């Protein structure tokens, strides 16, 4: 987590530092990223950076967590737009993430250099018990009458399965250089196969 001094910065300065870090993590994966490049683009001294963050991992995971929260909000909107249909909302979310041009290189580097900690951050609301309030917020928007499940515990595990499939599809898209159309077609097919297995009727 950032130090309190970061949160005390004016919003404009915070955004400059965040965008500088995202630019660096979009250029190269975390292990190759340079604090020197981040502070050069941000126009701040190295000492100032360490007043705000412990190191490059600190600002990297702050960015991942920030994106996870934004995606949770988008996912809730997609659930509402699709009348609580979990699969349709997942497909809409997948397409939306593919079209996030400002984040696509950041995502490519994250997915192609995945670690357990990075995966944990990407999962966000589905990763652990600390996120129970977020999970409940999403769960409330899902039409569970369509699902062949017995309660929220099974819903939690369904979400784990769906996000695992989503992860693999992103890795395949970036590793094989699939077009957006190819990636969406494959993802839609796999989601439909899962839908046949988890939907009633």
How would you describe the overall organization of this protein?
This is TetR family transcriptional regulator. Keywords: DNA-binding. It comes from Thalassobacillus devorans. The protein has eleven helices and no strands. The chain is globular. It is mainly α and about 200 residues long. The protein has helices at about 5, 10-25, 35-40, 45-50, 55-80, 85-100, 105-110, 115-125, 130-140, 150-175, 180-200. The chain is about 70% helix and about 0% strand.
Keywords:
DNA-binding, 201 residues, mainly alpha, single chain, Homeodomain-like_sf, TetR family transcriptional regulator, HTH_TetR
Quickly describe the structure.
InterPro entries: Homeodomain-like_sf, HTH_TetR. The protein is an all-alpha fold and 201 residues long.
Q: Pairing-aware structural class of the strands and helices?
A: mainly alpha
Low-confidence stretches: none
Q: What is the alpha-carbon Rg in Å?
A: 18 Å
Helix and strand run:
HHHHHHHHHHH
**Mean pLDDT over the residues:** 89
What percent of residues are in strands? under 5%
Helix-residue proportion: over 70%
Number of distinct helices: 11
**Distance between the amino and carboxyl termini:** 46 Å
- Tell the overall outline: globular
What does the main sheet amount to? none
Total count of strands: 0
Question: What does the secondary structure layout of this molecule look like, with pairings?
Answer:
Blueprint: H1 4-7, H2 11-27, H3 35-42, H4 46-52, H5 56-81, H6 86-98, H7 104-112, H8 116-123, H9 132-139, H10 152-176, H11 180-198
């Amino acid at each position: 987590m950032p130090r309190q001094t970061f949160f005390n910065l004016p919003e404009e300065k915070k955004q400059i530092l965040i965008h500088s870090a995202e630019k660096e993590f979009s250029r190269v994966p975390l292990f190759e990223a340079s604090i020197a490049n981040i502070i050069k683009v941000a126009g701040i001294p190295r000492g100032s950076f360490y007043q705000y963050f412990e190191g490059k991992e600190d600002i990297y995971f702050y960015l991942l967590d920030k994106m996870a929260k934004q995606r949770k909000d988008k996912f809730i909107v997609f659930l509402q737009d699709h009348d609580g249909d979990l699969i349709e909302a997942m497909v809409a979310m997948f397409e939306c993430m593919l079209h996030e041009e400002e984040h696509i290189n950041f995502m490519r580097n994250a997915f192609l250099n995945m670690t357990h900690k990075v995966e944990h951050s990407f999962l966000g609301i589905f990763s652990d018990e600390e996120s129970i309030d977020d999970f409940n917020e999403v769960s409330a928007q899902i039409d569970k009458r369509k699902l062949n499940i017995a309660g929220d515990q099974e819903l939690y595990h369904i979400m784990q399965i769906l996000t695992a499939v989503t992860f693999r599809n992103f890795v395949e898209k970036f590793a094989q250089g699939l077009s957006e159309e190819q990636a969406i077609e494959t993802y839609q097919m796999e989601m439909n196969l899962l839908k046949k297995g988890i939907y009633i009727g």
